[in-house]
Amino acid sequence: MTLPRQRGLTEQAADAAIDTACRMLRLPSIRNEFSDIADRAVKDQMTYRGFLAELLMTECDDRARRRSERRIKAAGFPREKSLRTFDFDANPNIDPATIHTLASCEWIKKGQPLCLIGDSGTGKSHMLIALGTEAAMKGYRVRYPSPRSWSTSWSRPPTRNS
Fold first, then answer.
1. What domains are there in the chain, each with its CATH number?
2. At 158, is the pLDDT very low, low, confident or very high (cuts 50, 70, 90)?
3. What share of the chain is helix, strand, coil (3-state, %, to 5)?
């Protein structure tokens, strides 16, 4: 069913129509930000195309952010950690440049493994979670295996089916 389009809608009617259309089309960011972006467009004298681009980019950016959040949540990290909160001064043996190179995720693209080795309390878990978070934010699916699954999978010898 198509609705007849009306010219000369009042501001209130136009806002209601936009809200309804955004709900139907599942565009929550445009729905939430439309008024602010429209006011800014008038103030900045944007073209219609510029205004439309601003609206669509708002929706795209918000969807990308939500996708990253879902990937991070799906990874199953036991706690939230990031490279921004890592204290490189606490362990001078960790080279910040190396860690930031790892955060670029090139090693994942190349299919290379990563093994973090060190004494207890040196930041391996923090680094693992932080690098996993960076990978999820860059679009990679990440899974954090629980320590219970490590001991279960390593304690049993492989079985053979003869």
1. 11-67 (no CATH), 83-155 (3.40.50.300)
2. low
3. 60, 0, 40
Closest CA to 81 of 15, 141, 11, 130: 130
| 27's tokens | 């565009």
Q: Is the pLDDT of residue 156 over 70?
A: no
Rounded-to-integer distance, Cα 146 and Cα 75, Å: 11
Largest CA distance in the chain: 79
> What is this structure's pTM?
0.68
CA nearest 71: which of 131, 3, 141?
141
* pLDDT confidence band for 84 (50 / 70 / 90): confident
- Contacts by residues 40-49 (CB-CB < 8 Å, ≥ 24 positions apart): none
Sorting pLDDT into bands at 50, 70 and 90, what band is 147?
Answer: low
C-alpha–C-alpha distance, residues 129 and 20, integer Å: 41
pLDDT at 38: 93
Compute the distance between CA of residue 101 and CA of residue 110 in angstroms, rounded to an integer: 14
